[in-house]
Amino acid sequence: MTTHAELASELLKLGAATLGESGARAMRDRITPVWSGAEIAAPAYTVRCSPGDNLAVHVAVSHAPEDHALVVDVGDLRELGYWGEVLTTAAEARGITGLVIDGGVRDVRALKAHGFPVFATTVALRGATKDLPGAVNVPIRCGGVPVVRGDWVVGDADGVVVVPGAEIHPVLVAARDRADKEEGMFKALRKGTTTIRLLGLDPRLIRKGDH
């Protein structure tokens, strides 16, 4: 039986792009790593904030299980720093492995120094309030994608995808097949073939100018 660590490692190795072409759900491209090299593969612990407020995030940090990533919907007010170094330090102490937020964060230099993977919509200086209702461990939408606890989030330089918990196996099988097929293509290309031939493309559709 595959362990949590083995599954996370394989998902990271396959990568968000391959998984996104193999049945995983791609988040909107507004959600990107806030520091170069950030990577994440973990089960989701979901958070819904009132716009402009991050009380629910603080509650989630104190309740989320180890080895989970927080996945946060802040509504339509994204241009605030809902997360920073204080919450990062608290999350690390609780064994939380990363953050995906459809909103802003701050203290980027500190987040990189911690090595804490964060994927966010923007970087924003002004902070959020901490006194409005919210929810944790409920179905949400983040980056235009539905997320429930137990889904896996995978993020790297290409973006973030969600692998539904009930579809982990078929997505993995499809992603492995795609990765194997691409490896075969790489070998063929290095030997001199073309993408036109490999992909069965029709070059007659492209007009060529005079030399």
Give structural notes.
The structure is a single chain. With 211 residues, the protein is an alpha/beta fold. It contains seven helices and eleven strands. The strands form two sheets. Strands 1, 2, 3, 4, 5, 6, 7, 10 and 11 form a nine-stranded mixed β-sheet that branches. Strands 8-9 form a two-stranded antiparallel ribbon. The radius of gyration is 20 Å and the shape is elongated.
Structural class of the helices, strands and pairings? alpha/beta
Number of strands: 11
Under CATH, the topology can be stated as Glucose Oxidase, domain 1
What gyration radius follows from the Cα positions, in whole Å? 20 Å
Main sheet makeup: 9 strands, mixed
Beta content: 15-25%
* String of helices and strands: HHEEEHEHEHEEEEEEHH
Count of separate DSSP helical elements: 7
CATH 4th-level superfamily: Ribonuclease E inhibitor RraA/RraA-like
Uncertain stretches of 5 or more adjacent residues: none
Share of helical residues:
25-40%
Mean of pLDDT? 96
| Count of discrete structural domains | 1
Shape: elongated
Distance between the termini: 60 Å
Using the 3D structure, state the CATH architecture: 3-Layer(bba) Sandwich
Give the CATH class.
Alpha Beta
